[in-house]
Amino acid sequence: MKAVLRVARAAVRRRRVQSLVIGTVVLLTSGTMVLGIGLLVASNGPFDRAFASQSGAHAAASFDAATVTGADLAATAQRPGVTAAAGPFDATQAQLLDGGRALPPGTLVGRAEADTAVDKLDVSDGRWLTGPGQIVLSGDLKAEGPGAPGVGDRLTVDVPGQPSLEIVGFADSITGTANAWVSPEQTDVLRAQGVPVSRQMLYRFASAGTEEAVTASLDTATAALKDGALTGSTSYLAAKLRLDSNIKVMVPFVVAFAVLGLAMSVLIVVNVVAGAVVAGFQVIGVQKTLGFTPAQVVGVYTGQILAVCVPACLVGVALGHLLALPVLAQAADGYGVAGAATVPPWVDALVLLALPAIVGLAAVATATRAGRLSAVQAITVGRAPRAGRGFRVRRALAATGLPRPVSFGLGTPFARPARAAVTVIAVLLGATTVVFATGLATSLTRVADGFNRISAIDIDVNLMRAIGPGGGQVAGPPRSGPAPDPATVRAAIDAQAGTARVVGMAQTDVGLAGSTDPLQVRAYDGDASWTGYPILAGRWYSGADEVVAGSRMLRLTGAKVGDYLTLTTDQGQRRVHLVGEVFSNAGEPMIIMSTAGLTGLVENVAPDHFEVALTDGTDPRAYAEALNTAFGGDAARASVTAEEQENEAVAIMIGLITLLTVLLSAVAALGVFNTVVLNTRERVHEIGVLKSIGMTPRQVRAMVVTSMAAVGLLGGALAVPLGYGLHRWVLPVMGEAAGTGLPDSVLAVYGPAELVALGAAGMALAVLGALVPAGWAARTRPATALRAE
């Protein structure tokens, strides 16, 4: 064993170039693997652990209190497929007031206990309530800093009578079943006059692995109730999506990069070991003459690979942590459970064990040839290719009339067909990475543009303060002076030269029966079909009782196109028909509708924004400056949409894609580099002869670089369909992880010219990898080359 280790260490020192190649490749691959597995774990493990420990609800259902009784709902707990249930709990939608500051509106539930069979609440601060006059807030409403509500403070519920409640604690529901909890005896809140009242049931089902399974189980549980009794529901999968989508959306492409990197690592190790065996035939013969067994010979080559691989893997794991931690840190607050912002130790252990094992097995399989050689064979055989290998091809190339350096170079891969095939695959994987990454970055850029509707909306006009006290509208920064008049602002826009289209938009929040989260509403006061929301399913709304929804709203609420939704506020409720799904940038549930549809729900629906499209040839920046001058004062501000909108998540992903592409392209180039080094060392005598008969250094360089041209061309041509298919598979998976559908414009990013140009990436990688060893060969003196052989 000592002799094997000694020879392996000497081989590492002697073959420094190959050792550097393997070390770099393994380092980059292990770092990518840690990043990919770490993101995969972070997107699943924390939520699953918290959901199990808190007996989270598979479904939280809202029922019309006027249609069903508590006994009717309690009976649903005995229906087939229901494994556990909690409720019924009285619930209502209400606004909480902290002095003069309004907290986000949400669902208040009457609940006597925190530790129920379903949805056990984790009281993170203070205690659970013991009777009327007390309230426990969701942890989402807990804030820091002066003026933030805390235990012991009092809140006012904005319902008739304005009851005042003491905050006694903060609690967390893993599936967000309520925004606050009060005593079931708090009837002045739960059954306030004129305020819609509902009843909530929480279920766990035997079958709940998918959204369809949850829906089917809920349908079975409520089948005996009257039609219309169920007004809405949300599933745990929506809560999971909300919490982990920022990380989970990155998992598909990072894992794809990790697999590509691992495959290239194995191929390059196979190539290095095969080349080392060929170059070391005489050394192998001497070792066997001295008594080395076949297993010991194999151990020498495997040992020299592992001696480089293990330290490089350790450094790569540390690199993976550096790449992963900034992304994983975003999950800590969202999950509220320990470990969400770190890569688990078992991931490090897995990579440290698996990658050296895979690389070691590749080395053993390749080095077995050396172990089978007899001492006489090993000493007598040369390291150059056998005579006649690829002879016909090289002779045919010489007869084509091509310059001799080019014909010699093109024929070189046929002398070592197995090595050439491995190199083609390495180039193929590297070029596939480039094709895939280019398409992915283009798609993400189009996603950002589509989210911000840059192609449709040129100018956004923002009124600088809320229009009125009713309706909870969101507008620009407050200002002193009277409220701006939307009609005056609209008239100034219409009068401005270059205006093609304009529509006003009011933003507000309403409640959605069955959901604890406020529902964002974008209400337009005119035709808004041109405002740049791509239709993914269904159609655009056409009346006051029709709405379209963003994809994320459908995923987070479980609603489907064709469903009827019940919108609620403290002023009333309205039933609307969901007729379409659109591509939008809403991070939370959002619907788009006519301002007429808000009648009876909010007091004021005057626009707080105007969206403007310009005529062809109009300069958006000059238009915005002229419009701001026309407004005068600070009543409204016009801005260029393309300059104002940003998407940080997309920017982070594009940066990560660029980094991984550069790393894996470097790995592919190193694979080519290694192949050319092996080829030039084997053919050093031939190079010496060619130089002796007049081949110039420039011609030698051209010959070596050309030897990889066919390899790069073939690898690049094969990479185009592979990268195209990988893009078409990964991007929809990313969209599903983000909770959104994708329009065709985001998927169709490759044109014929782009595909041809991307196919040339294989040639570029091959030439890049061949340049340095080609320079070495060009500088070799004939006498030195002939003596070396």
Name the descriptors.
51% helix; twelve-stranded mixed beta sheet; 789 residues; single chain; 26 helices; alpha+beta
Explain what this protein looks like in three dimensions.
- The protein is α+β, with helices and mostly antiparallel strands and 789 residues long.
- Helix content is 51%, strand content 17%.
- The strands form 2 sheets. Strands 1, 2, 3, 4, 5, 6, 7, 8, 9, 10, 11 and 12 form a 12-stranded mixed β-sheet that branches. A 6-stranded mixed β-barrel has the order 14-15-20-17-19-18.
- Helix 2 runs antiparallel to helix 11 (345-372).
- The longest helix has 42 residues, at 294-335.
- It starts with a helix and ends with a helix.
- The model is unreliable at 331-340 and 466-481 (pLDDT under 50).
Helix coverage percent: 40-55%
Largest sheet: 12 strands, mixed
Structural class: alpha+beta
The rounded Rg comes to: 34 Å
Instruction: Tell me the number of strands.
Output: 22
Give the CA-based shape.
elongated
Uncertain regions: pLDDT < 50 for 5+ in a row? 331-340, 466-481
Strand content: 15-25%
Average per-residue pLDDT, rounded, comes to 78
Number of helices: 26
SSE blueprint and pairings:
Blueprint: H1 2-14, H2 16-42, H3 45-53, E1 59-64, H4 70-75, E2 82-94, E3 96-98, E4 101-102, E5 106-110, E6 122-126, E7 134-138, E8 154-157, E9 164-172, E10 180-182, H5 187-190, E11 197-205, H6 211-221, E12 230-235, H7 236-248, H8 251-279, H9 281-289, H10 294-335, H11 345-372, H12 375-380, H13 391-398, H14 404-411, H15 417-452, E13 459-463, H16 486-495, E14 499-512, E15 519-524, E16 535-538, E17 546-550, H17 551-557, E18 564-569, E19 572-582, E20 590-594, E21 609-614, H18 620-631, E22 636-640, H19 641-644, H20 648-682, H21 684-692, H22 697-706, H23 709-738, H24 744-747, H25 752-779, H26 782-788
Helix pairs in contact: 1-10, 2-8, 2-10, 2-11, 2-20, 7-10, 8-11, 8-15, 8-20, 8-23, 10-11, 13-14, 14-22, 15-20, 15-23, 15-25, 20-25, 21-26, 22-25, 23-25
